[in-house]
Specification:
Layout: H1 2-10, H2 14-19, H3 28-46, H4 57-79, H5 83-114, H6 116-122, E1 129-133, E2 157-161, H7 165-174, E3 179-184, E4 188-192
Parallel strand pairs: 1-2, 1-3
Antiparallel strand pairs: 3-4
Helix pairs in contact: 3-4, 4-5
């Protein structure tokens, strides 16, 4: 449901489709485009229980149909003799531009926050290192950041969730030559001795 709300945020002219659905006696082509989009939405919800969820790619396949339906509605609004219909369409286009700029700024800020660990680790130039993560990054769970390669000994940097002293000691026995750092969001990295 959140992805459909995001769709309205990213593509506000779709609201015109709902508002003017009956007023302009929606032609069969527009109804077909909307039906094809809604079928993609149905597939999205049908597979939402899959492992990892379906992702946005299912909505992306139906998005062109939605654009065609909105384009036809805008054409009908533009042909309308009343000035009000044309102003509504101009408002929808202005809302589209404004909402996209706001969405872009929010997503850029989120991506910047999520890359905090990567930026922090790039400043470490002390050989092989283990990073114990006390927190995740901005809107990112800790488990998403602890993905290491299958051959742990071949990795330059290893990422593990913060754990109790017994497990930390076991980890340090397995990797005795690694430097150990503790990471906390935002950008706080502390080098620790092996006996902590």
């Amino acid at each position: 449901m959140q992805r459909l709300a995001t769709l309205l945020w990213v593509f506000p002219p779709v609201i015109l489709l709902a508002v003017f659905w009956k007023r302009y006696q929606t032609p069969l082509e527009v109804k077909m485009c909307v039906a094809l989009f809604l079928m993609n939405v149905a597939v999205y919800f049908f597979y939402s229980t899959a492992v990892g969820g379906p992702g946005p790619r299912y909505l992306l396949a139906g998005f062109p149909f939605l654009i065609l339906a909105v384009a036809d509605t805008s054409h009908r609004i533009s042909r309308d003799s009343s000035i009000g219909g044309q102003h509504i369409w101009r408002f929808a286009v202005a809302a589209l531009i404004l909402c996209n700029l706001v969405f872009l700024a929010r997503e850029g800020y989120t991506m910047y926050g999520r890359r905090d660990l990567q930026r922090t680790v790039q400043n470490v130039h002390e050989g092989k290192s283990i990073f114990l993560l006390k927190t995740g990054t901005y809107r990112t769970a800790l488990g998403d950041l602890t993905r290491n390669p299958p051959a742990l000994s071949s990795a330059h940097n290893l990422f593990f969730a913060w754990c109790d002293k017994v497990n930390r000691d076991e980890l340090l026995k397995r990797f005795p030559s690694y430097n150990v750092f503790v990471y906390e969001y935002p950008g706080h990295l502390t080098k620790v001795s092996t006996g902590f």
